[in-house]
Design goal:
It contains twelve helices and 28 strands. With 452 residues, the chain is an alpha+beta fold. It has a domain of 158 residues: Adenine-n6-DNA-methyltransferase TaqI, Chain A, domain 2 (Alpha-Beta Complex). Strand 15 and strand 16 form a beta hairpin. Helix 7 packs antiparallel against helix 11. The radius of gyration is 26 Å and the shape is elongated. The C terminus is likely disordered. Keywords: DNA-binding, Restriction system. One of its GO terms (biological process) is DNA restriction-modification system. This is EcoKI restriction-modification system protein HsdS.
């Protein structure tokens, strides 16, 4: 990829130079600010890092359901840009729909000099996000963008025809990358299902296909080995709640991995608000079961390998079971995910509140201790080839995503010259919207509701 022939300096920390024929303008001269209220009948909108500004019913989960004072929410029109409480992580979002949104957000209206399609790429680029992070302020650990600071910074403004070429080029190249990523992610999902099947078969039927079987008592579960026993989870799981340990590491409970140490420095992954005072968070000891009660129906729970703290909205249990490694494999298998789904009551799209009384009645299949040990030894070996394939594909996806990020940033800031490139016919492919974190704990929604 070739660079432009000559550049000129730009007095900005986030961008040091731009092509010599490009202009630079302060944001306040390129956008006006919309602060219209009094539209309570408009649809509620959500600013999502993956989807842009869309109706709440499309986004679905993890947002406060505003039911009062709708006249105080800000109007957003199609083509506006929205600075949200997450913009310091993922950039400024484009509005695909008209509606109303939090009054804590800033609504930007582009003027004619800058094309919305060009700014959509610039506003989500890595270098521009660095600029946003220079403008953080407020009480929420830097999650507010001070627009009075931001609007006095300069951004590049290529000639209008060049903006159009940049957009066409990026639409083409990003579509090709997105298509490759989608194929690899689909393959990852397929292999992950194969791995789950191996685990599921081991914890429900054992390793010997020739043993006598008996009916489990559950129609969709079918038969289990005749010599295995069945108990109820109330005999195994006992609620535990201890707080006031803010010095302990912060943990997360996620669907694919169970309980992990949360990287509080990783702003890309921390979709949820982390309060300054963690004394209200629940303690989890190594060997206890931690569970995201809103996502238990998806498998967001597991035996913790760590002592730390988790959201006060989660469940923690002491586990009265000798072989915790076996219990972890079994309880996270597809069989028990289905049980937890049946024991949960839907409260909004993507979130089902787990009922403790229903959960206590879930049956748990218990093989003899020697078979538990054999299954624990078998599963890692049987899954090794799947784990290796998933790791390789995940690395390939990471490299493609990094290339996409760098390409967008380089093109919109003039580090790459795309003027003479002919754009062929192609199929436009949008970036797949990843599910926005399993770490739904209510604290983010509550904090935002108070601010609104």
């Amino acid at each position: 990829m070739k660079k432009y022939e000559s550049y000129k300096p730009l007095s900005e920390l986030w961008l040091s130079s731009i092509p010599i024929h490009w202009h630079s303008r302060k944001i306040k001269y390129l956008f006006s600010e919309r602060s219209e209220k009094g539209y309570p009948d408009e649809q509620l909108l959500v600013a999502s890092q993956n989807m842009g500004v869309v109706p709440k019913h499309i986004y679905g989960n993890r947002t406060v359901e505003a039911m009062k004072d709708l006249h105080l929410l800000k109007l957003v029109r199609v083509g506006d840009f929205v600075i949200s409480l997450r913009s310091f992580q993922g950039g400024i979002e484009y509005a695909y729909y008209q509606g109303i949104i939090s009054p804590a957000y800033t609504i930007m209206i582009p003027k004619d000099i800058i094309m919305p399609s060009y700014f959509r790429y610039l506003a989500k680029s890595r270098l521009f996000i660095e600029l946003l992070q220079l403008c953080v302020t407020g009480i929420r650990e830097g999650q507010n963008i001070d627009y009075n600071k931001l609007k006095n910074h300069q951004i590049p403004v290529p000639p209008r025809l060049e903006q159009d070429q940049i957009v066409r080029y990026l639409d083409w190249k990003v579509s090709k990358i997105n298509k490759l990523i989608a194929v690899k992610k689909k393959e990852i999902s397929r292999i992950a299902e194969l791995k789950k099947t191996v685990v599921n078969e081991a914890v429900t039927h054992g390793l010997n296909p020739n043993v006598p079987m008996k009916f489990s008592g559950v129609d969709w579960l079918g038969d289990i080995p005749a010599h295995w026993k069945t108990t109820k989870l109330r005999q195994i799981l006992h609620p535990f709640s201890e707080k006031n340990h803010p010095e302990l590491p912060l943990l997360s409970v996620v669907r694919e991995q169970g309980v992990i140490v949360r990287n509080v420095e990783d702003k890309e992954s921390n979709h949820n608000f982390i309060p300054d005072d963690l004394s209200g968070y629940k303690m989890v000891k190594k060997g206890q079961l931690a569970m995201n009660k809103m996502k238990a129906w998806q498998g967001s729970y597991g035996i913790s390998d760590y002592t730390g703290i988790i959201s006060p909205a989660y469940y923690v249990f002491d586990v009265d079971f000798e072989n915790l490694e076996y219990f972890h494999y079994a309880i996270r298998s597809k069989v028990y995910v289905n049980f937890f789904a049946q024991a949960s009551d839907g409260i909004r799209v993507g979130q089902w509140d787990l009922s403790i009384p229903k959960m206590k009645e879930i049956p748990f299949i218990v093989p003899p201790e020697n078979e538990q040990k054999a299954i624990v030894e078998y599963i890692p070996k049987a899954c090794a080839k799947y784990d290796a394939a998933i790791a390789q594909l995940t690395q390939e996806v990471d490299l493609l995503e990094e290339y996409r990020t760098k390409l967008i940033s380089d093109v919109v800031t003039g580090q790459i010259d795309v003027r003479g490139i002919e754009i062929p016919e192609y199929e436009y492919v949008e970036e797949e919207a990843d599910e926005e974190s399993d770490e739904t704990d209510g604290t983010d929604e509550e904090a935002e509701e108070q601010e609104e």
